[in-house]
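Let's practice the habit of predicting before peeking. Look at the sequence and jot down your guess about where helices and strands might fall. Then scroll down.
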Amino acid sequence: MASKIKNIIESAVDRGVLLGSWLSQQGLSRTEQVSYVKSGWLERVHRGVYKIKGSELKLYPTLKALSIQSDFCYHVGALSALELRGYSHFGQLGKQKVFLYSQKELPKWMVTDDWDMNIIDNNTNKYGNIGLTEIENDNVTIRISAPERAFLESLDLIPEYANPMDLYYIMEMLSTLRPRIIIDLLEKASIKTRRLFLFMADKAKHPWFDDLDLNRIALGSGDRSITPGGVYNAKYKIVIPKELNNYE
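Done guessing? Here is the structure:
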């Protein structure tokens, strides 16, 4: 009996969870799962969710385990994805925030402060599957937004989680964005996000800006505002912070 659980543990994601439904697919009945908890092989995390006895669960390995063991589809996006690729202006103080995007709500047992990161869950699929990629992080393959998508997702977080000036500092670093991916994403973005992105890209004077097919991007009518009491930019019909407008 011990050899069965040993084989399952060896095939599982290190520091990730074990779903009861997945264990059943591996030939471990519900009765056996309870038995392995009692005998010290497994620990119960939640009803139908286990971890290896004595292991410390980590968020990224758990997300990877969920993607393997169920139909849970996620990606790490926005500021978190930019930071994972080395694009960050300020380091986070305290417990790291992770901006997580999924097509359905997180399982209730995941909504807790016990993780090694604070989860900011965004239940949206505005940009579809455009601009997603995978990277290795701490020996785990995770799905993240490519820089083009991550930056637009970050603009969507203004003002609650992101600051326009901080994002512009990051924009200055983004010298290798892909024009085709940018346009595909901008077609899905809100009018305000489109205008702010183009304002920042234009201001940063990256070479790729001239390769954007802007005929595909409608900027709508009327004015938009990022901040009260800011400066109006007539080209993009948007009110931006004074600090950003005056920055050289």
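How did you do? The chain has two domains: 2-57, 60-246.
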